[in-house]
Design brief:
The protein has 8 helices and 11 strands. Strand 4 (74-78) and strand 5 form a beta hairpin. The strands form 2 sheets. A 7-stranded mixed β-sheet has the order 5-4-3-2-1-10-11, with helices on both faces. The protein has a 4-stranded antiparallel β-sheet with strand order 6-7-9-8, with helices on one face. By secondary structure, the protein is of the alpha/beta class.
């Protein structure tokens, strides 16, 4: 019997930087009524609020929900309101060095976008994220900017030399995430185990990139049983199947 269903956010519960739709919200409400649920993403708390929480029913079922921004370096639980259990932030000196290195690595004219939507560098406390077109860029524009990862691979190669003491990962459609070494979905899975007291084998992880090199693959490497989906539509069918199995049992 599984005790916890863990979801990736972008590409799994919703399209990149988009809100969950009404059908997904209803399915999550139903799932939260019978089982513990968690969402792990490289995004910050504000994205969880906008993309997920604003569309869920605000009642006692939220006590079954755990939210882990920035791959688990932050952990939120509901208890008469959302409580931040911890936040493993960079020091001011670390942030200054990372942001300076990002500006240096992305300064080449051929990496500069003709137009951006919002800030291209975002301080998420425990993660610094570069977004090639800005945080609010339309999905169709993001998909055109670096479809073969070539721009971000160049930036990553430079950052690996400038800040080798930190981990640099490609994420989303246009982003690069800088964290402490060892911060990935496996880190979040282990945090769920430690905080909730649920064995990893008693979880199911659902994500759209559960393949070698994908940002959901570390969850599988951590030992979590996984279900790979291609998009939010497929995730809905997975949730329906889980609910049906639990109702029968």
């Amino acid at each position: 019997m599984k005790k916890l269903i863990v979801f990736d956010l972008d590409g799994t519960l919703a399209e990149s930087k988009s809100s969950i739709d009404a059908e997904m919200a209803a399915l999550l409400d139903s799932l939260l009524g019978i089982l513990k649920v968690s969402v792990i993403s490289g995004g910050d708390w504000s994205q969880f609020e906008k993309q997920v929480l604003a569309h869920l029913t605000h009642d006692e079922r939220l006590e079954n929900l755990s939210l882990l921004p920035t791959c688990g370096t932050k952990f939120y639980k509901y208890a008469s309101g959302w409580k931040l259990l911890y936040s493993e932030d960079f020091t001011d000196e670390e942030k200054t060095k990372i942001i300076s290195s990002l500006k240096q690595a992305t300064g080449s004219p051929d990496l500069k976008a003709a137009r951006t939507w919002g800030d291209t560098i975002q301080d998420r406390g425990s993660q610094i994220t570069f977004s090639g077109l800005g945080q609010q860029a339309p999905l169709e524009e993001k998909e055109k900017w670096d479809p073969d990862f070539s721009k971000r691979k160049r930036i990553k190669a430079l950052l690996d030399k400038l800040i080798p003491e930190f981990s640099v990962r490609l994420g989303g459609a246009t982003s690069i995430d800088v964290t402490q070494h060892g911060i990935d979905k496996a880190y979040g899975i282990r945090k769920l185990r430690d905080v909730l007291g649920i064995a990893i084998k008693e979880m199911i992880y659902v994500g759209d990139a559960v393949f070698p090199g994908g940002n959901d693959y570390p969850a599988k490497e951590a030992g979590a049983p996984t279900i790979e989906v291609k998009d939010p539509h497929e995730t809905k069918r997975v949730i329906e199947a889980i609910i049906a199995c639990l109702e029968v049992s």
